[in-house]
Amino acid sequence: MRRLLPFLSFAALACAPSAEPRPDTTTSSRPSAAGRTADSVALLRLHERAREAHIAKRADWLVEGQADSLISVSGGKVSVSPREQVRAGFQPYFDASTFQAWDDVVPPRIRISPDGGMAYVVVEKRVHLTTRAPNGATEAERTRFAWLSVYEKQGGEWRMTAIASTDRPDPL
Q1: What mean pLDDT comes out for the span 96-118?
Q2: Between the N and C ends of the chain, which has fewer C-beta atoms within 10 Å?
């Protein structure tokens, strides 16, 4: 016990409050717990809106939550596309597709930066659809997607600024 006494005294002093003033955390730039919850809900709503866009075949709904341009990492390439180009690229795909499933395999994983200005959402999704080929034939596709979407808060709203995705056939 005598050997522990100096150690315990030191430990007690180390845990004691400092006499120096601490910064006021109530005025810091960190969002409150309620603000972080609201941000998570807003990001989940954008995720759900993307599902609605696929089912309703509405590319305009898909891009309404994007920044002016979107960085995409896929298929071993990086591209930067203006919002209108993304919309124009998705609409023919939507027009030729009918979705039977566009469902999360696991709930999206959301991380928001400590200052509340950036976030990412990690998604794993199964997508089952039929597409109409130019010759009129119908083909079934079953794909498992995984992606990471990066968001920035712009003008108080979350905007997707980048996406990196990968896919593989879905055996189910």
Answers
A1: 97
A2: N
Sign for the pseudo-dihedral over CA of 85, 88, 93, 97: positive
Neighbours of 150 (CB within 10 A): 17
The residue ranges of DSSP E strands in the chain, in sequence order, are 66-74, 77-82, 97-104, 109-112, 118-132, 138-154, 157-169
pLDDT by residue (tens digit) across 50-101?
Answer: 999 999 999 999 999 999 999 999 999 999 999 999 999 999 999 999 999 9
Q: How confident is the model at residue 19 (pLDDT cuts 50, 70, 90)?
A: very low
Residue 18 lies in a domain: no
Let me know if residue 103 belongs to a domain.
yes
User: From CA 60, how far away is CA 84, in angstroms rounded?
Assistant: 9
Indicate the pairing of strand 97-104 with strand 109-112: unpaired
What is the extent of the structural domain holding 105? 32-169
Per the structure, the count of domains in the chain is 1
The amino acid occupying position 57 is K
How many CA atoms lie less than 13 Å away from 34 in the CB half-sphere? 0
Residue 107 lies in a domain: yes
CATH of the domain at 66: 3.10.450.50
Separation CA 22–CA 14 (nearest Å): 16
Which residues face 150 on adjacent strands?
A: 120, 162
